[in-house]
Amino acid sequence: MKHILIVDDNLTNLEQISIQIEDLYDVSLAKSGAQAIQICNKAEPDLILLDIEMPEMDGFATLAKLRENIAHRSIPVIFLTASHDPKTELKAIKAGAVDFIGKPAERDIIIHRIETHLALVSANRDMEGKARGLEDAVIMSFADIIEHRNASSFGGARRTAAIVRVLADELISMDAFPGELNAHSSEMMSRAAPLHDVGKIGVSDVILLKPALLNDDEFRVMKTHTSIGAQILRRIFREMPAAPGFQDYAVTMALSHHERWDGKGYPDGLAGDAIPLCARVMAAADVLDALMDSRTYKEPMGFAEAALVIASGRGTVFDPRVADAFQASEKRLEKATERQPEP
Fold it and tell me: Given strand 47-51, what is the order of strands in its sheet?
């Protein structure tokens, strides 16, 4: 059953509309814009019926706030209002509403409008599913290339994706980033993770496979893989249909996964919360997998030893909240980092 959220400061209006549609849909009620946002953060509705004329946060302000969260941008919003001013209707459509219903509205009209926009959402999701399939094919193709060029162990792309997912989900359970991190963003970050090192395609094998630590000049070249990766992904994504959120996460994680909490990272020397959250999570995942991986210049660490390195970087290399999420989820992370035999 589809979930419909009705938002109106008038309790009588809420009850009347709810009674009209509750036999067809799972209905939630909100008496204010702030309450509506709270409901969306906990259980995203399939469609919102939103009153315009409300105190404190009106319908326009509520819609704008919802759209700040990428997870809520695809929820269709139908405005409800007693105003019959064409300027109000035009403003509603420009604000991002998919439709406009005058109050009081007949049951058949409400249901017809709801069904129309639910059908449109379904069609859009089918298209997004096809786009996702294309994106996933690109992800794994590049991940395979990176693994072979970097002489890293088999399955690194899947491991980093799993690590990011565990960390993001733990941060959600900690309520560390309310309004910024949710199930949708966790999934997008996990899908984008295998592309974080795609820029290594542009780094010479002489440097990439050197059986010793890099000198200063070589390290300067190696650091360019972040900006190269972002450039490559931007060019690819220009030619691909866009699934909401994923492409932004992929570019950002490729560009910024070597930034440090203390500002001593690269390429931009960002610090603290100026580093995008997805890159902060990716940084911990990247370091963990690299520490546990065998390289031409080092032997792999075990999980316990690598976990101590992550803990020692709390507040310097890593966001303290990400480091805390790491510690809280060590059992799941150890399982996610298990090496699989190469086929």
Answer: 26-30, 3-7, 47-51, 77-81, 99-102
Residue 243 has pLDDT above 60, yes or no: no
| pLDDT for the residue 154 | 57
Query: Which of 200, 205, 203, 210 lies closest to 254 in space, CA to CA?
Result: 200
* Residue 343 confidence (pLDDT) above 70: no
pLDDT for residue 150: 65
- Range in 2-11, 54-63, 67-76, 169-178 the model is least confident about: 67-76
User: How is 265-305 classified by DSSP, letter by letter?
Assistant: -SSS---GGGS-HHHHHHHHHHHHHHHHS-BTTBPPPPHHH
Largest CA distance in the chain: 75
Residue 16: what residue type? Q
Whether pLDDT at 152 is above 70: no
Structural domains in the chain, sorted by start: 3-105 (3.40.50.2300), 129-336 (1.10.3210.10)
Mean pLDDT in residue range 144-171: 81
**Would you tell me how many other CB atoms lie within 10 Å of the CB of residue 276?**
18
Candidates 246, 252, 247; CA nearest to 281 is 252
H or E segment to which residue 100 belongs: strand 99-102
Yes or no: say if 246 and 192 are a contact pair by the CB < 8 Å rule. Answer: yes
**Cα–Cα distance measured from residue 161 to residue 152, given in angstroms and rounded to the nearest whole number:** 15
